[in-house]
Design goal:
four-stranded antiparallel sheet
Length: about 120
């Protein structure tokens, strides 16, 4: 079992910054790709950024050059640095952790990010 726990969400003004953290319990060996997703009201959940155990990253076009994902494999923790936030970034942000051995995805409870104009 893996239990991701997100933190760092909040209310910020447009142009501001936030740093989200995702701490995942469980065996480090079994944790593969980690990702941040978000879901805005009335919208489907979408990938924001992901990072594999080797540090390879993938970003949604809408956050490219503004957000940076990173991870600490020793701590089973992923981070999302969000800069130049825009109102359209407002959503619940979820951490996803893929267990490569169990072949299962584990989701955190989500953390709210609200960006005001």
């Amino acid at each position: 079992q893996v239990q991701p726990v997100e933190s760092g969400g909040g209310l910020v003004q447009a142009g501001g910054s936030l740093r989200l953290s995702c701490a995942a319990s469980g065996s480090r060996l079994g944790i593969g790709i980690m990702g941040w997703y978000r879901q805005a009201p009335g919208k489907q959940r979408e990938l924001v950024a992901s990072i594999d155990s080797g540090g390879n990253t993938n970003y949604a076009n809408s956050v490219q050059a503004r957000f940076t994902i990173s991870r600490d494999n020793e701590k089973n923790t992923a981070y999302l640095n969000m800069n130049n936030l825009k109102p359209e970034d407002t959503a619940v942000y979820y951490c996803n952790v893929r267990h490569r051995i169990l072949a299962l995805d584990f989701w955190g409870q989500g953390t709210q990010v609200t960006v005001s104009s």
